[in-house]
Amino acid sequence: xxxxxxxxxxxxxxxxxxxxxxxxxxxxxxxxxxxxxxxxxxxxxxxxxxxxxxxxxxxxxxxxxxxxxxxxxxxxxxxxxxxxxxxxxxxxxxxxxxxxxxxxxxxxxxxxxxxxxxxxxxxxxxxxxxxxxxxxxxxxxxxxxxxxxx
Amino acid sequence: xxxxxxxxxxxxxxxxxxxxxxxxxxxxxxxxxxxxxxxxxxxxxxxxxxxxxxxxxxxxxxxxxxxxxxxxxxxxxxxxxxxxxxxxxxxxxxxxxxxxxxxxxxxxxxxxxxxxxxxxxxxxxxxxxxxxxxxxxxxxxxxxxxxxxxxxxxxxxxxxxxxxxxxxxxxxxxxxxxxxxxxxxxxxxxxxxxxxxxxxxxxxxxxxxxxxxxxxxxxxxxxxxxxxxxxxxxxxxxxxxxxxxxxx
Lengths: 150, 248
Hints:
The complex is a heterodimer of chains A (about 150) and B (about 250). With about 150 residues, chain A is mainly α. Chain A has seven helices and two strands, in the order αβαβααααα. The radius of gyration of chain A is 19 Å and the shape is elongated. The N and C termini of chain A lie far apart (about 50 Å). Mean pLDDT of chain A is about 55; it is low at about 1-5 and about 80-150. Chain B is of the alpha+beta class. In chain B, about 40% of the residues lie in helices and about 25% in strands. Chain B contains seven helices and ten strands. Chain B has helices spanning about 50-65, 85-90, 95-105, 120-130, 130-140, 150-180, 210-220; strands spanning about 1-10, 30-35, 35-45, 50, 70-75, 80, 110-115, 185, 195-205, 225-235. In chain B, helix 4 (about 120-130) packs across helix 5 (about 130-140) and helix 5 packs antiparallel against helix 6 (about 150-180). The longest helix of chain B has 30 residues, at about 150-180. Chain B is elongated and about 70 Å long. The chains are: A mainly alpha (about 150), B alpha+beta (about 250). Chains A and B meet through strand 1, helix 2, strand 2, helix 3 and helix 4 of A and strand 1, strand 4, helix 1, strand 5 and strand 6 of B. Strand 1 of chain A pairs parallel with strand 10 of chain B.
């Protein structure tokens, strides 16, 4: 629709008429809509694991260590908050927003669907189960901040 | 064995089936019964794999269908064995409820709004605002990493709590600013620690511009701290009752 696409892109707001990418599609349609239980015929094992995985992550030791590392690296001596803007913002859009989403959701996407969309389904299911047992390990694979984790 | 994959329900006679193919690369058809109609496509087998391609097909068929019709989206993965079952168990058995829901959602679309913190700006706020965090940070920084494992966990936990407090306040203010332009809204759990808001709004089409303008001003006012994403117009995925028990 014209409304969603008419404005120029800005550094603080992205508009899209449709979900962009699988993570978006999952967020928007998963577990939503009318359902007639007797007729749901889909193997959603991997997708359910993804949502659990994405939601428990916030209160974990893994997150605490990552936060600790991030605040340790902060440079507070530079001229306060102005220093962080606006050059940093450009940088952050890459590292913070995109990469973190990628770290959590894209890692899961790979494990659900396989790196190739045409991969055999049964194989995708096994991968998902394997990943859910080692979620912290595969999460760090998506983040450049994992280097000092023990 | 084959079956009919069901995307959603519209009013009969609206001819909402899009030209694109659906799940399983088969054409999308309409099955009508009385005042309501189902958007379906015939698929082989007796289950639908939860694959990226199929999820996207489900979403895109519904999105195209909503251009010319009011659509009640089904949850991903509803497969009925034949057209008669679609008529009987979906359209006939639930006709009253479907009709009422179509009336209630007429002319309304879903807009999703998410916001993400710019992490370093947020952490800078957290550290400068909280003396305990600042002190603990200095102590951790002065020692080798191996000697501070538990202190680092404690520091991270305090930071996480402070982030949560920021999130709660920021999310409340954002939702308060956008709510007046929507008929309803649903605020979902943040999907990761940088997410401030992950919400869906049911917006009348004639108020979309107003809603968009407000998202613009809300996000511009927070440009130094957050990045926003606005998606839609979408079918009202979040505003149809998901549970069969609620169908009565």
